[in-house]
Write a structure and sequence with these properties.
By secondary structure, this protein is mainly alpha-helical. The chain has one domain. Helices cover 77% and strands 0% of the residues. It has eight helices and no strands. The longest helix has 35 residues.
Amino acid sequence: MLNFGEIASVSLILFSIIDILGSIPIIIDLRKRVGKIESGKATLVAGIIMITFLFLGEVILRMFNIDVASFSVAGAIIILIIGMEMILDRDFFRPDPDTSDSSSIIPLAFPLIAGAGTLTTILSLKAAYGQFNILIGIVINMIFVFIVLKSAGWLERKIGKAGFNILRKVFGIILLSLAIKLIKENFLQ
């Protein structure tokens, strides 16, 4: 049943978890390394991952005998590596020369947009909100993600090289902190 209060709540919760605004330095860095980001493709893949997880997430994890905590730790390790890339100026995720558009999928669509935190949040939301309202919240967030991805070039020009370098280091530390928090919460219990 359509409930605008639930849609607003779900949208805000997902917005804070996806944190696309906080990912702008990562998006700009990725764009610099690979030349371009396919905004539509990244948004579509992230949306499909989230919607699939909304309807089949628990089944998929059970099928592979994976608990939500282990899934979160795996996502946290990827986030940790991306944070290290940003701080150390090293590339661990190198684009595959045979698939020039793969960087729009990994690490952008997954795990940055539709990462372990987002997917586990979607599973948690199912306990409190209707699936249709969660679905609409996902779509609203994907529209916003698309807008931010499309404007990455403009943002890069406005921020400038020095500003970008500062943001890159700061957000690298934030990503490392987020990864450590996810690992602590899900692994070191």
